Every structure is written in structure tokens, then in C-alpha cells.
Amino acid sequence: MTSESTPALPYGRVLLKLSGEALMGSQSFGIDAEVVTGIAAQIKDVHELGVEVGVVMGGGNIFRGLAASEKGFDRVSADHMGMLATVINALALQDALENAALNTRVLSAIEMRQVAEPYIKRRAVRHLEKGRVVLFAAGTGNPYFSTDTTAALRAMEIKADVIMKATKVDGVYDADPASVPNAKKFTEISHIDVLTKGLGVMDTTAISLCMDNGVPIIVFDIRESGNIKRAILGEPIGSRIQ
Length: 242
Description:
Blueprint: E1 13-18, H1 33-47, E2 52-57, H2 65-70, H3 75-99, E3 104-108, E4 117-118, H4 121-129, E5 133-137, H5 147-157, E6 162-167, E7 172-173, E8 185-186, E9 188-189, H6 191-196, H7 204-213, E10 217-221, H8 227-232, E11 239-241
Parallel strand pairs: 1-2, 1-6, 2-5, 3-4, 3-5, 6-10, 9-11
Antiparallel strand pairs: 7-8, 10-11
Helix pairs in contact: 1-3, 5-7
């Protein structure tokens, strides 16, 4: 008798881009503990499939560097403040993941050894190979770069199979679906079309990096429980940029 083999997963190593806003829930600011616990449960479901998971954290629920610079803050100082906000979010998600019995590491692009390991590419890959969920914090460590660009950069450095962009919208549209009721949703779209159409999925630097290096992006709604696993399994949810 031959045993049936388990079908191969579409992705063995993924980079989840998680916005700060995703941690707010229905609040206008800060971190909703219940929402963070739910996201941790979704990541655990994926991890139990044998998928290696890296997470790039945003910080917009606490501080947005670009928005602050437009209000008079020095751009470099504002961006550094935004990077520190991503560390707060990473520590919150780490706590929820550890409570869910997952081993984790926070790697920060800004050195702060009391709370996180310094980001080193080889160390990050080794943690992933050992089955740890790796949380990338503090962006690239440089001003003028968004956490979207960080996600693209880290995905290429760790050789992720895909970037999973978790948002409050269920995909890529040709207009803002919140204000345009008949906005068209794209099931699949190319990197170059995202750029030429000016679709605000990720910033142009991030999209260009992914296009030049052949990294696909799946954009999906994080608010629906189980969507991370569905996307990992190859189910047709959200929008695929490739």
C-alpha cells in the first residue's frame, strides 16, 4: 500500500507586510490587544503548515513620519520616530505569538539590544530555518524609506517566495472603493501596471524592487479571519501582483 503524499504548498517562505493600522481594530489610535491576538492565531495556523514566516511591521497606528514632517517636524527625526513605533508594534505581536506557543525573534534595523536583536541577514535566515517567526522592526534603519520598501528589501534578502500585503481592503482597485462604489477590483495585475496606473498599493520604490527581482505580491484583507492561510494555500483571495 502506498501512502498519499501531502501536496506541496505554493509558498515555503513568506514575508507578511503588516500595517500599523491593522493592529488598531476599530480604534483610531494604538493597539487593540484582541486584534493582535487574532492576527497571531492566523500566523500560527500558517506556521503549523510548515511555512517559514517573516513579518515586516508598520507603525502608522502610533506615528507616521511622513505625515509628521508635513506638519513641521524635521523629516529625518520624524522618520526615526516612525521606526521606533514599528518596534513597539513588533513587541506587541511578539508577545501575542509567544502566548500562542510560537518561538519568535524581533530583529531591529536600529540597534537596541535590550529589546531586540540587531538585523543581520544571515541571522534572520537562520532563525527562519529553525522554525522561528521573525519580526522585522525599525524599517530599513534609514529615513526616507517606507516600511513597504522595507518589506520588498527584506523579502529579497531572505529569498521569500511572496510578499503578503495585509490591508483593510480586499485587494487592488482602480479607485478607492470606500469613496467610489463601482471601483474595479483586479484579480491579477502586473507590477508595471500598478506603477503606470498610479495605484496606491505600495510605494513606487517597493513595487519597482519587486518588479526588478520577480517577487509577487498578494494584497488581501487581514480583517477576515483565516485569510492568511487561504492565501498561503493558493486560494483566489485578494489581488495578485506579478
